[in-house]
Design brief:
Aspartate Aminotransferase, domain 2, 2 domains, 14 helices, 42% helix, binds 4'-deoxy-4'-aminopyridoxal-5'-phosphate, PyrdxlP-dep_Trfase, AspAT_Ic
Length: 434
Amino acid sequence: MRMGRYEDLSVEELESLRKELKQSYREYQNMDLNLDMSRGKPSLDQLDLSNGMMDALNSEADMYSSDGFDVRNYGVLGGIAEAKELLSDMMENNPDNIIIFGNSSLNVMYDSISRSYSHGVMGNTPWCKLDKIKWLCPVPGYDRHFAITEYFGIEMINVPMTEKGPDMDIVEELVASDESIKGIWCVPKYSNPQGYSYSDETVRRFARLKPAAKDFRIYWDNAYGMHHLYDHDQDYLIEILAECKRAGNPDLVYKFASTSKISFPGSGIASMATSLNNLEDIKKQMQYQTIGHDKVNQLRHVRFFEDIHGMVKHMMKHADIIRPKFEMVESVFEKNLNGLDIGSWTNPKGGYFISFETLPGCAKEVVDKCKKAGVKLTSAGATFPYGKDPEDSNIRIAPTYPPLEDLRIATELFCLCVKLISVEKLLKKKTSGL
Ligand code: PMP
């Protein structure tokens, strides 16, 4: 029987549907599943793509960087020249505007907030001496961003995401009117979790913000800049540093990126691009923090990828592995849920996630139900500051890690749980006369 909208079903129809769905759910429970769709990790075969990096710098290799430094020894605070060149091509910035850090861009974001707290931004009052610091958080967003700002006791303000990026009317108004707002989290390309990319207008409006706080910075986390799923159908963004400069706001943005999901998560290289004024400010602190980051890893990356063209080709190999997973999840959603009006989902062209919206008040129960049948999802609420999704409707789907067949089973089960919880919600609504 082809179903129409669940909302249109009678109480009797909903009850008989619930019975059927419960029976199917029990069958899944009997399968003793143990599947994990909770984090955006590359799969094993994606990791294998970069194993050649181990040979790229073996014991026979020349250990000198192009500018004559022995990478095995101390020194070179901002990164070796060829790593700066590669990462600046990746980030679409001038090498002069880049610093290479260690293995994690999240770490650099954390340090940037920490430095602003202890020493202030470019001569402004350190945040620790101010009564209140606030931050704008486009929602749904990345849980680890929100965790950093929560850890520092920063008050987080939700800003709704649209398909074109954060609602800029709200962003403009808030930053212009409140000096205690010091930053905003942005994942401008293939956002986590919706896979949306900011429109030209959004980027232009960001570059033209007029914050009340002189030390307001946009945290532009371009984690998925190279992570397209398709060869020909890709999102392009206006480059934010250049746009800020054009708009007369050169110091407004810190841009972050890393090779975590290009080479190895946790063993990649991270970088930041920003204005020369900001770089000077940041390097003042960095010189006390370290003598230099891991240059061996920097050189290893450059020897392996050679240049940006090598990296682009490498990313297409990643895409060939994960594209079928995204397409499979979307087709299972389509087959099971289309027309029922109990859920909607995004169809990203890149990044690592699909975002799913249940009926209001269902997300937590869906995630619990999946867990009880052996499928682990990102906790409901995780995509919002303080873990609180006001609508309890957003679920982040991370399709990359499990093998395709496991993912298919997990997605089928997910759809079943969405149906079951939606039916129960609708039944409750109808029988209580609400
Ligand atoms: N930013 C975003 C938006 C991410 O999704 C991730 C990884 N899931 C990171 C940063 C983490 O980056 P890194 O490994 O460079 O710390």
